Structures are given as C-alpha cells and as structure tokens.
Amino acid sequence: FALDYSAAAEGGFAIVEPASGNVELVTIPGLKSCEQVHRVPGHPARFAVHCGGMYGSEEPDAGLVVFELDADGQATEVASYLAEEGGSPLDSIVVLDGDRFFGIRFGTWDSSADPDVGYVVRFDDGEAEEVLRASAGGATLGTAAFDPETGILLVPDKNDGVIQLRAQGASFEEVRRFAFGRSGMRVRAFVRL
C-alpha cells in the first residue's frame, strides 16, 4: 500500500528456503492486499492466500487462491475464488478443505437490515450456501476457526459471543450461541493451533 492507502501493488506471497536463504516472490495477477496465508486441511502441500483487495475499489481485486508446493518448492495454482461485483464472502475466511472455505460478507455497520452473513463456498463453481447470519448489524462477526477432526466451526460474534456450527455432510448447521469474553470485550478472532 501507498502511505496514504491510495494505491497498492499487485498481490503475492514469498517462498523462503531457510537452508539457502533464497527468497522467491510470487505475484498473483489482478489481486491486491494479500496478507493472510492459510493451511488447507487434508492437503499438507497446499496453502491458500487470502487477498482482501483495495478498500473501496470498483474492481474485483479480492480473492482466495489455493496453491500446491511441489518437491522443488515451486507453487502451482490449483483452485481459486475471485470477488464479484456487489460483495463477496471474502471479508474474513477460513479454509475448510481442498474444495471449500467458510467466508463472511460484512453487512452495513449497525444495520439490522443488512447483517454479516457466513457462507460455505465451493472453489470449483463459486456456489455459496448461507449457513450463518449475525443477529444484528454489520462488522459483528470476527475471524473463525475450524477443526477438521471434529467438524466444529467457531465464529466470534460481538453481540452473541460465540456461534458454534458443526459440519453436516457438505454443509454446516448451527449448534448453539453462547456468551464468551468479558462484558464489552468480546472475542474477535479464533485461531486453531
């Protein structure tokens, strides 16, 4: 980003070889603001790069791209989901497996008419299934975490505390909502270690 956030360079990521100290920058044409890398559960050689795009951009420059590293350390794109005009569930994401991710589309701030919505999105065709809707307002859902062994997805919600979902086949169902965190200091992000 430029210091005043008026421009951003093409997105990308770096492949670092610790033994040799070599660093290779890999660009992702058309995407900007790539700042998160996620493991792909069930695929040890795969990782996903999340690019949020330029804030306020008229261009669809946000996306999630999955790469696979070969034995020589070369990355090959194997799947992607690119933003569409009118909003996409890329405001906060967690990769579920090699075929899908959970993504949040932030709603309008403090508007019960346009709350945050969580979707399970397929990489192959971009089909998005709504699995969660915040109880009120935009920017209420935070960064989720998924445990592929139990199929549990935890989503922080500044109003409800925590929303717990469980994998049911290819979809998810809400299990419960429960308070978590101190009053006025709700959890905003979960991380699975």
Q: What is the topology?
A:
Blueprint: E1 11-17, E2 22-28, E3 34-39, E4 46-51, E5 63-69, E6 75-82, E7 92-95, E8 100-105, E9 117-122, E10 128-133, E11 145-147, E12 152-157, E13 161-168, E14 171-178, E15 181-182, E16 185-186
Antiparallel strand pairs: 1-2, 3-4, 4-5, 5-6, 7-8, 8-9, 9-10, 11-12, 12-13, 13-14, 15-16
| Helix coverage percent | under 10%
Q: Please give the radius of gyration in angstroms.
A: 17 Å
- Write down how many β-strands occur, each being a DSSP E stretch of 2 or more residues: 16
Separation of the first and last Cα atoms: 29 Å
Q: Uncertain runs with pLDDT below 50, 5 residues or more?
A: none
Question: Could you give the order of strands across the largest sheet?
Answer: 3-4-5-6
**Beta fraction of the residues?**
over 45%
Structural class: mainly beta
Mean pLDDT: 89
Question: What form results from the Cα inertia axes?
Answer: globular
Q: DSSP helix count?
A: 0
The H/E string reads EEEEEEEEEEEEEEEE
Q: The biggest beta sheet, please?
A: 4 strands, antiparallel
